[in-house]
Design goal:
By secondary structure, this protein is α+β, with helices and mostly antiparallel strands. The chain has helices at about 1-10, 15-25, 100, 130-140, 145-155, 175-185, 210-215, 275-285, and strands spanning about 40, 50, 65-70, 70-80, 80-90, 95, 115-125, 155-165, 185-190, 200-205, 225-230, 235-245, 255-265, 265-275, 290-295, 300-305. Strands 5-4-7-8-9 form a five-stranded mixed sheet. Strands 14-13-12-15-16 form a five-stranded antiparallel sheet. α4 packs antiparallel against α5 (about 145-155).
């Protein structure tokens, strides 16, 4: 599993997002759990998950609903209106310094002299296969020039979803926070739906009243005043008929699963990318075996395991 985690954060995963989340959860991110990282001004929590149709939602009341962008979470530290440091989410308490990369993206101009933390998600605005891996891998690159090529390739952008002071809330209302960020020139999760190609992973529901949000408290992993709503993909079973190797435009050779045709979301699926040989080994796949298939993000055919 250590190899899977390292490959994921290096931008060369052999597990799909769904498989990685099933093993590690989706609260990790670039640089998770590594030493030598810098502390966030405020902790970056993961979110408790609620799957539609599986019981009652964990919160009721005056909630704000926003899309859940599916990229790489980061924090921006501002002081005296200037960007001091940008960090990957890491383990939620500390993250890696990626200031040189975030300075390459179009950010707002903070009109506040206080020390603030703006949190958000780096995502591609172009349609990219394995968008979360693409964003995380880009932030892991050592060369800024290489990062800039990824920015151009995927139209990488930062979408803010929160702003806080060291003591907690910024304003009285979460929705007001987002509008303030927009006034400063930041794109926020309120605008993410304007880009159909921006990868999303459900919705986030959060108390609008920031006092209520903080008074609800926090577990070691997530706030009690917010949750992520998701729809669980139901895998469809079919047979792995063959594996062929396909050479892409960059010369990369990728294994492709040839499947007994099966209908998923009104689309006939007969092929699925297998990423690489390590992925095949991890899934214990062999010709003739029954496999479980989903369309990740309602688009990409993906094998999530043996049936």
């Amino acid at each position: 599993m250590k190899k899977a985690s390292q490959a994921y954060h290096q931008g060369t995963p052999f597990l799909s997002n769904e498989q990685y989340d099933a093993i590690f959860g989706d609260e990790g991110g670039v640089g998770s759990g590594e030493s030598g990282d810098f502390a966030h001004l405020r902790p970056m929590y993961s979110l408790q998950k609620y799957y539609v149709g599986e019981g009652e939602p964990p919160l009721t009341g005056n909630l704000i609903k926003t899309v859940k962008c599916d990229g790489a979470a980061v924090s921006l530290l501002y002081s005296d209106g200037k960007l001091v440091r940008a960090l990957t989410r890491g383990d939620g308490d500390k993250g890696k310094d990626i200031t040189d990369k975030l300075e390459c993206l179009q950010l707002g101009t903070v009109a506040d002299k206080d020390t603030l933390q703006i949190t958000g998600e780096v995502v591609p605005r172009k349609t990219i296969t394995n968008a979360r891996n693409f964003a995380s891998g880009a932030l892991s690159l050592k060369s800024v020039d290489e990062f800039l090529s990824r920015v151009q390739e995927g139209d990488l952008a930062f979408f803010a979803y929160g702003v806080e002071k060291s003591t907690g809330k910024y304003s009285d209302l979460f929705l007001r926070d987002l509008h303030i960020l927009n006034d400063w020139g930041f794109e926020t999760v309120l605008h993410a739906e304007l880009y159909p190609s921006v990868p999303t992973d459900g919705y986030v529901y959060r108390y609008n009243d920031n006092d209520m949000y903080h008074q609800a408290g926090f577990t070691a992993h997530h706030p009690r005043g917010a949750y992520a709503e998701k729809t669980r993909d139901i895998p469809v079973e079919t047979t792995l008929l063959d594996v062929i190797w396909q050479t892409g435009k960059t010369g990369k050779v990728t294994p492709i699963a040839i499947l007994e045709p099966v209908v998923i979301d009104d689309a006939v699926i007969s092929r699925a990318t297998l990423n690489n040989y390590a992925f095949i080994e991890a899934m214990d796949l062999e010709i003739g075996c029954r496999v479980k298939v989903i369309r990740a993000g309602k688009i990409i055919p993906c094998i999530v395991g043996r049936a």
